[in-house]
Automatic annotation (TrEMBL), chain A:
GO terms for molecular function: hydrolase activity. GO terms for biological process: chemotaxis. PANTHER family: PROTEIN PHOSPHATASE CHEZ. The keyword Hydrolase applies. This is Chemotaxis protein CheC. Residues 110-146, 307-343 form the CheC-like protein domain. It comes from the Archaea.
TrEMBL record, chain B:
It catalyses: L-glutaminyl-[protein] + H2O = L-glutamyl-[protein] + NH4(+). This is Probable chemoreceptor glutamine deamidase CheD. Pfam families: CheD (PF03975). One of its GO terms (biological process) is chemotaxis. Its EC number is 3.5.1.44. Transmembrane segments: none annotated. GO terms for molecular function: protein-glutamine glutaminase activity. The keyword Acyltransferase does not apply. InterPro entries: CheD-like_sf, Chemorcpt_Glu_NH3ase_CheD, Cytotoxic_necrot_fac-like_cat. It comes from Natrialba swarupiae. It is an enzyme of class 3 (hydrolase). Keywords: Chemotaxis, Hydrolase. The keyword Cytoplasm does not apply. It comes from the Archaea.
């Protein structure tokens, strides 16, 4: 099975188109104004997907099986309370006297059937969107209502659901209701053979072997581990990697997923195979915490001052070296990076120059999305590594898959004297 | 970002995401968040109270093969698409005026050359001049981010920066 950017781009358009149709139908059904949030193609290991389900609240979902041009499963997942809100809105429309007993642990029959109906209409919206893009027919089974706190009930009976170490391609979309808290996620788990056939049909170049994406994932893993390790060494704050994801998205999507607030960012350009940009984003509280940890004697200023700025730049610099060393080790290449650029401004504004730059040559990007957090203390760091497309394809093609498992992480850090 | 089910006169501001454009009238609010090197282009016809906002990412759509599908992505094609849609809605071409904001250069990376934000602002000025649309106000360049809010009816363009102390909000 081989893939290329053109095929993934078509997949991405399918996801966007499907999300648009689903959002429109949700609006039509509930009268609630909706907005399409971030749409992503995700490459995730089975264990990461399962962890995603486990770490959050009770969920309810509606699942259908697909046959025809795409074979696999399409799954709408709501947080339980969001499902209740949607059902309330629906029942309000139908009968203003109807009241829902939200205290009961189990969904009653009526809410189950209302949720199933909503979920099914949304699933059908997505699927119609994909069928439109592919100009073909996709058949849908009867919907199945699922409720649970872990991934198991959602994956039970899904033939070909990804094993812990299998890298699955997920379509992930979010639809939000304007001015309310209702939002939900959609997942498509295509069967491997079916996806292989589709990719063959959509590819316009030789592309790369799917299994080489394993190298991507390993790069992401190494890079993230290095960032957490460096942060701990330099600040003394125990940090760990909370999220690590490989996304394929349109460039426009990248600034849109950055929180709409003032952030502290440290950005780098890197050169080699691959080349691209690396951005670390901290919320203000975390940035202050870092300055306190690294420069205990500094005065508590409103902004970050010269000392604070240079401490954060230094941390960013060493984290960037660790991250890119992790990549270089997996790829067996050398990657150099620039000096750090410090920006304390609206988060999206610090990311958009990079997509503006890359946008003249590419429409989509692989984004290595990482979140590093600390237990009990403020340390939230989002890492975006955005690679130049052609370089990345070259780097992956050169990659010897058998080497990946054996690659040790060799980056070393010097102790920094904080005194 | 495209919204579904929004009606004219709806109170919530319409978000115009990167590479998108929207045309509206009266007191509606069109909003673009967190512009860095991207450029907000606002056109309006003060007499007919029709206007539009584009959130362009790149300068030159004529050189790109997807500008038909995504006219809002490029400064030049965004301006033409806004004008066309406004005229379709009843605006008169000759009274349309323009304001632009954004086009910062936040980073000094070698690969960025003389500035990616600067190029966007230059492309917009050039296209407006070609079409004979007067550029009546601008807040471009520098090295900071901007969020803009545009009222098509009055042509008021609010530019917000994250600097609370000085010039937090500028009205164009």
């Amino acid at each position: 099975m081989r893939l290329d950017v053109n095929a993934l781009g078509t997949f991405y358009r399918m996801a966007r188109e499907g999300t648009g149709l689903a959002a429109g139908r949700l609006t039509h059904m509930t009268g609630v104004e909706t907005r399409v949030g971030v749409t992503k193609l995700n490459f995730m290991r089975g264990q990461e997907i399962r962890r995603d389900f486990r770490t959050s609240k009770t969920k309810v979902g509606v699942r259908v099986e697909l046959t025809g041009a795409i074979e696999g499963y399409s799954l709408i997942v709501f947080d339980r309370e969001n499902a209740i809100r949607i059902v309330e809105t629906l029942l309000d429309e139908a009968d203003s006297d109807a009241e829902l007993d939200v205290e009961t642990d189990e969904f009653d029959r009526m809410s189950r059937s209302a949720t199933t109906e909503v979920g099914h209409i949304m699933n059908s919206g997505f699927i119609d969107g994909w069928a439109d893009v592919l100009e073909t027919v996709i058949d849908v089974s009867t919907p199945e209502f699922i409720e649970g706190e872990s991934a198991e009930p959602f994956f039970d009976g899904v033939s070909g659901s990804p094993g812990d170490d299998d890298l699955a391609l997920l379509f992930q979309s979010r639809i939000e209701a304007v001015d309310t808290e209702i939002g939900f996620n959609h997942y498509l788990f295509p069967k491997r053979e079916s996806m292989g056939a589709l990719l063959d049909q959509l590819r316009t170049s030789e592309g790369i072997e799917y299994d080489k994406l394993d190298g991507f994932d390993r790069m992401a893993e190494r890079g993230a581990e290095e960032v957490a390790k460096t942060a701990t060494t330099l600040t003394g704050i125990e940090t760990n990697v909370e999220i690590r994801r490989l996304n394929f998205v349109s460039l426009e999507t990248i600034p849109e997923q950055v929180p709409d607030e003032k952030l502290v960012s440290v950005a780098f350009e890197f050169e080699g195979v691959p080349s691209g940009y690396l951005i670390f984003l901290f919320d203000e509280e975390s940035a202050h915490e870092i300055v306190d940890a690294m420069v205990p004697s500094s005065v508590d200023e409103d902004g970050f001052g010269e000392m604070g700025t240079s401490a954060i730049k230094e941390l960013g610099n060493i984290m960037a070296s660790g991250f890119l060393d992790g990549w270089a080790n997996v790829l067996d290449t050398a990657i150099d990076h620039s000096t750090p650029e410090f920006v304390h401004d609206m988060g999206a504004a610090a990311v958009d120059p990079v997509i503006v730059k890359l946008g003249s040559n590419q429409e989509f990007a692989f984004v290595f999305d990482t979140v590093v957090v600390a237990d009990g203390r403020e340390f939230d760091c989002e890492v975006y590594a955005i690679a130049d497309e052609s370089d990345l394809e070259r780097a992956l093609n050169d990659l010897d898959v058998d080497r990946i498992e054996e690659t040790p992480t060799t980056a070393e850090f010097q102790e920094v004297d904080n005194a | 970002m495209k919204t579904y089910g929004s009606e004219p006169g709806a109170p919530s501001p319409v978000q115009v995401g990167i590479s998108e454009l929207a045309v509206s009238d009266g007191d509606d609010t069109l909003k673009s968040y967190g512009l860095g090197s991207c450029l907000a282009i606002a056109l309006y016809d003060p007499e007919d109270e029709i206007g539009g906002l584009a959130h362009a990412m790149l300068p030159d759509g004529d050189a790109a093969d997807n500008s038909d599908r995504k006219p809002g992505k490029y400064a030049d094609t965004a301006i033409r698409a806004l004008l066309r849609r406004m005229v379709e809605r009843g605006a008169s071409y000759t009274s349309v005026e323009a304001k632009i904001a954004g086009g910062s250069d936040m980073f000094e990376f070698d690969s960025f050359g003389e500035g990616v934000g600067q190029r966007n602002a230059d492309a917009a000025r050039e296209e407006l001049e070609k079409l004979g649309v007067p550029l009546v106000a601008e807040d471009v360049g520098g090295d900071h981010g901007r969020t803009v809010e545009f009222t098509p009816g009055t042509g008021r363009l609010l530019v917000k920066t994250s600097d609370e102390e000085e010039n937090g909000v500028t009205e164009l």
